[in-house]
Amino acid sequence: RKEVEQDPGPFNVPEGATVAFNCTYSNSASQSFFWYRQDCRKEPKLLMSVYSSGNEDGRFTAQLNRASQYISLLIRDSKLSDSATYLCVVSTGTASKLTFGTGTRLQVTL
Amino acid sequence: DADVTQTPRNRITKTGKRIMLECSQTKGHDRMYWYRQDPGLGLRLIYYSFDVKDINKGEISDGYSVSRQAQAKFSLSLESAIPNQTALYFCATSDRDGTSSYEQYFGPGTRLTVT
Fold first, then answer.
1. Can you give the pLDDT of all 115 residues of chain B as single tens digits?
2. Which of A5, A14, A108, B45 could form a disulfide with B58 if both were Cys (CB 3.0 to 4.6 A apart)?
C-alpha cells in the first residue's frame, strides 16, 4: 500500500464549480500535512498546510481527519488558473522529510 | 533571480555515461534534497542533506551519489546512467527550525533522458 494515496483524476469542472480532492495516508504516526500545487512541467509549490481544526485560505479549505487518516482539499468558485495537479504531502518522523502523493489533476474549463 | 536553480535544465545522455546535475540556492537554507518524478509514481526522495557535513540516503538512492560542496550547493551524480533513470529531477531546500522547516522550495527541475 502506498504511504499517501490520491485519486489521480483528472477532474474536469466548469468555472465557478466547487471541487473536492481526497487523500489517505497509511502511517498513523504522521505529524504534518500539506497540499502542494504543481503546474504542468513546473516545480511543486506549497499551497497550504493542513491543521487538525481545519483551515481556510480564500477559496481553499483543507481538512484533516486523524482517526480516518484522511485529508481533503475543497476549492470553491473554481478559476481557470486553478488548473494544475494537487499533491497531498505528509511528514512522518524526521522534520522536513516529506512523502508526496502522486497527485490529482484538475482541469477547469469555460 | 530564482532562489533555487538547477543546471542543466534538459539533458540527453547515453547509457553508461556519468552525469552530474547541479543545484544552487540563495535562500540561505541548511537543508537540501534531491527528488525524481516519474508519471504515476510521484516525487521520490533520492538523497538529502541537513548541513554541509550531513548526507543521507532517501527512498531510492541506488545508482546515485551526491556531494554537498557548500551550504548553497548540492549536486547529484549518476555514475553510470541507465534508461530507467530517465525522469524529471528536482532539487529542493528547506529552513532548519520551526514549522517553516516543513515547507520545501523547489528548483525548476532537470529533464534527463538516458538512451
1. 679 999 999 999 999 999 999 999 999 999 999 999 998 888 999 999 999 999 999 999 999 999 999 999 999 999 999 999 999 999 999 987 655 557 899 999 999 999 9
2. B45
Tell me the three cell numbers of residue A51. 491543521
Q: Which of B80, B66, B73, B64 is nearest to B26 (CA)?
A: B73
Q: How many residues does chain A have?
A: 110
Question: Does A45 sit within 8 Å of B42, measured CB to CB?
Answer: no
Tell me the three state secondary structure of residue B24. strand
Task: Please enumerate residues of B whose Cβ is less than 8 A from a Cβ of A.
Answer: 31, 40-45, 48, 50, 90, 94, 99, 101-104, 106-109
CA distances B50 to B54, B56, B78, Å, are: 6, 8, 21
